[in-house]
């Protein structure tokens, strides 16, 4: 990790506006306490979100104001030098330029940090830029990553093709349910990161986060977990992970209208990523727009309610599909290999995730069913992505995992007829289920 002397120690909340007591150091919150609710114990993501600092608008508005400035003025010329020297930073409400820190984006970052129980977080223009930036921050040329063989297609391509070519960082892909295999893939002195998804795309394998973190920490690695599939449901940092990354595009946004991401982790890491000479976020520049950050911050308060209904409906559908004799993969079903594990790791009352996978065996049958579901019965949409209020369906092998070759797909358990469903919550449950049954009844035997 880059430890530049000039990095700003500046991802923590300030309570006063500058101009009052610019040099009053009581203003500075010690890092460990920053994202904890009063009383200091993080118990539940909804409770933590409710306790996170809520900033009021400039005129007393219940919502914070949007700081739509690319650049920031100073009252005295000397202040500029002190900001660039790292003596004054966002913790004291001193901002330089919005590719560095922006107050509105920082506010969303605080919400993400509260959600994920990390010291700090910063938001980016996409999930992929969050993932790429954090990996480039943690690894240098010649470095090595151990990663799950079941990953989002873009992440898989980044690790297997782009990073070896562009920066000589290589990856060994392993079955993360085989803890022995994970351990023996670590190359002493070279491996820097263990990377996996909390619930993996698209076969819904649940990671044993505590055990994987223990193995990684014994060997001095940083554990990076993509929690895109399970916000609220799982809290990887509470279970041992060091860094949590998100594609905010999915559940956190919920509107299928914005591409965004986040890196949640230790304040030292987030600050190093903003370093003026060595920071991956500062220098690669996948900056989130302040207006986008504001919109997203308005959606986080109902993320918990949305997740509960996504999970509830996925559980009902999976149970009913199974009863119909269909082959369905869902971690809420007892026969799922990690059902007990997820039960033991999950936060209370959210359920088992909002995705399920329906195996129609052949691509032809999968396509026929999806055609019925979208174009005849209006059950959902044929589209990639997830976390939308409508149900989204895609045939993983020929879409989101098509960056993988045939052998890689077989190893990852992606059958050609596998339909991934991101279960929506629009309409009534009975109405939507009747649409599914009708589509099934029209399928050729
Ligand atoms: C979509 C997705 C990403 C990439 O995020 P973008 O916001 O599209 O850049 C990464 N990981 C997972 C698990 C995803 O579903």
From TrEMBL:
Natural source organism: Linum tenue
N6-(pyridoxal phosphate)lysine modification, residue list: 250
Chain positions covered by the region annotation Disordered: 1-24
Pfam assignment, any one: Cys_Met_Meta_PP
Keyword ATP-binding: no
A single BP term in Gene Ontology: transsulfuration
Names of required cofactors: pyridoxal 5'-phosphate
Origin superkingdom: Eukaryota
One CC-aspect GO term: cytoplasm
Family: Belongs to the trans-sulfuration enzymes family.
Protein name: Methionine gamma-lyase
Keywords: Pyridoxal phosphate
InterPro entries attached to this UniProt entry: Cys/Met-Metab_PyrdxlP-dep_enz (IPR000277), PyrdxlP-dep_Trfase (IPR015424), PyrdxlP-dep_Trfase_major (IPR015421), PyrdxlP-dep_Trfase_small (IPR015422)
Recorded GO MF terms: carbon-sulfur lyase activity; pyridoxal phosphate binding
Gene3D superfamilies xref list: Aspartate Aminotransferase, domain 1, Type I PLP-dependent aspartate aminotransferase-like (Major domain)
Lineage: Eukaryota, Viridiplantae, Streptophyta, Embryophyta, Tracheophyta
